[in-house]
């Protein structure tokens, strides 16, 4: 009589988890691909309906991108805009995070500065474009300062909100155990505030893209905003579409990189993005 041996040993948990992650990633990529194809299809229909004088077709835009890339115009524009955004946004984080922690922890400081923060955060950066050019010229400083202005208040508000959301019971428990003010900040306040900081950083990044276009249209010779405005002056709708789509792709890439970094930081604190 033949004995059939059945291996009832379940797959290791790590293998099952890896398989689930792979399937999830493939599903995400497939959904992205379908979404992009549908978007291109709608774009092509609009181009056919309104004509090339109003809507450049995907093929015409791709050809224009090759034209602009061949002489370095597109590459130089991407580098210029990306550099300005990263510098201004980075400075906004460097100033906004410590300021938000400080404002969130000390009530007196918060009450003194809140009127100014609330006042300036409702004034869009576009309103300061002319003053920035007059005060700082048409060089890099004016664009960087405008992006810094865009980012810093968003980061301050999100960081201070995170500090104020920390449970009082956690603070009292840490103090009762003899923790110093610095230890409470590092061990209790900062871990609880990190998700708020990251949210503020992502919002600030998105708003920085809004600012860079306006700033470069007014006071730049090189950049994606300047490219869009110059294309409009030459009546090249296909170049305009190249500039707009490049801005979207650049923003998507920046946000994805930020999300990857943020997820690794948050994982240390047991938080999923």
From TrEMBL:
GO terms for cellular component: plasma membrane. Residues 74-262 form the ABC transmembrane type-1 domain. Its main location: membrane. It is a multi-pass membrane protein. PROSITE patterns: ABC_TM1. InterPro entries: MetI-like, MetI-like_sf. One of its GO terms (biological process) is alkanesulfonate transmembrane transport. The chain crosses the membrane at residues 26-46, 85-104, 116-138, 144-166, 209-231, 237-258. It comes from the Bacteria. It is found in: Cell membrane. Keywords: Cell membrane, Membrane, Transmembrane, Transmembrane helix, Transport. Belongs to the binding-protein-dependent transport system permease family. This is ABC transporter permease. It comes from Streptomyces montanus.
